[in-house]
Amino acid sequence: MTNSQIYKKTLTFSLRRLLFNTICVIVVLALSTVGFAVVEKMYDKGLIGLAVGLVLGIIVVAVIAHFFAYTYSAGQIAMMTRGVTEGTLPDDVYGEGKRIVKERFMTVVAFYAATRAIKAIFNQIGKLITGAGRAIGGDTGEGIASAINIGIQVVIGFLSDCCLGWVFYFKEKSSFKAALEGCGVFFKNGKALVRNLGRIFGMGIASLALIGGALSGVFYLILSNFTSLFEKVATEIVNIASKDGSKIPEWFTKPENLALVAAIILGIIVWSIIHGAFIRPFILVGVLRNFMQAGLANLPTEADMADLAKKSSKFAKYQEKGDF
Fold first, then answer.
1. At 89, is the secondary structure helix, strand, or coil?
2. d(Cα 196, Cα 283) in Å, to the nearest integer?
3. Which of 14, 137, 184, 278 is such that its CA lies 20 to 30 A from the CA of 72?
4. Position 137 pLDDT exceeds 90
5. Nearest-CA neighbor of 273 among 4, 3, 8, 29?
6. 136 vs 127, 142, 146, 310, CA distance in Å?
7. Which is it for the CA torsion 171, 98, 315, 283, positive or negative?
């Protein structure tokens, strides 16, 4: 099967994740609006109510997503892995994906334990790379370190998914052992997998610029019609700042600028949902294929795993522990 065929066949997970994320956004917006309206009416402090409603919405969504959303991403990874390694997928892709996820990770705790372990290992190595930027010193060094860290986090997300693919492929091994071996695959075949970076960042930046930019523009055209609302928000920002004795830059006190900021934030939020549901999975198919091909052709040995343990105390810890 080609990457496009696998992507189209597993698109059912993306559609379900899109619906789930849309509902989550609606919940957050609804609670934020209710918070603003209630506190504004009772205490004339709508901005505080908005913040409280937003935080409450994020907490509610985080709890719900923790128990349900993982099935969509994990099931899609499981089916993509089968597609790139076996060249075929069942008719009921969604049902089979759910079955495999439940079979491989009997509980939600087991799934998140595996993903946390994988990310912890990659993050520790990533910090060493980020430290090189900070070593330059000053604002320049910190800026370089921040930029490197953002890039590393994006790459780590894809590597974590690939390691999960490795876990789903090796059914005869424990999820713990397969997850650690997946980390070993990257560190043994890192040079061969660097070619994925162009695909990851090239398509990611293009997606943000085209889709995120267009969405931000649309949201600004809509929000610019609510001048009175942003005038109210600007007034509250100034009042809160004056009570704290702080000074807000004049740019942030203008309603049109606040509308622009809100439009950009909304544009990025909606872009992240669309990108995560449709663009990222397309990128992931290619990255996962390269990862599996490189790993199966050049499996990590005990010596390779021992070498990785020397570089990462997190890896050594999990290796000694013997389980998540």
1. coil
2. 9
3. 184
4. no
5. 29
6. 15, 8, 13, 26
7. positive
Cα separation, 13 vs 51, in Å, equals: 32
Q: What are phi and psi of 195, to 5 degrees?
A: -60, -15
Specify the pLDDT at position 46: 73
**What per-residue confidence (pLDDT) applies to 177?**
87
Count other Cβ atoms within 10 Å, centred on residue 70: 16
* Residue 173's pLDDT band (cuts 50, 70, 90): confident
Can you read off the two tokens belonging to residue 75?
């099931």
* 138 phi-psi bin (left φ>0, alpha ψ -120 to 50, beta other): left
Count Cβ atoms below 10 Å from residue 265 Cβ, excluding itself: 12
Instruction: Return d(Cα 94, Cα 82) in angstroms, integer.
Output: 13
For residue 262, the one-letter residue type is A
Residue carrying structure tokens 């899109």:
18
* Closest CA relative to residue 53, chosen from 27, 73, 83: 27
Q: How far is CA 40 from CA 31, 49, 224, in A?
A: 14, 7, 21
Cβ-proximal residues to 105 (8 Å cutoff; 6+ apart), any chain? 74, 111, 114, 175
What is the crossing angle of helices 175-193 and 302-311, to 10°? 80
Residue listed under structure tokens 């085209």: 210
Q: Give the DSSP per-residue string, 263-301.
A: HHHHHHHHHHHHIIIIIHHHHHHHHHHHHHHHHHHS---
pLDDT beyond 90 at 64: no
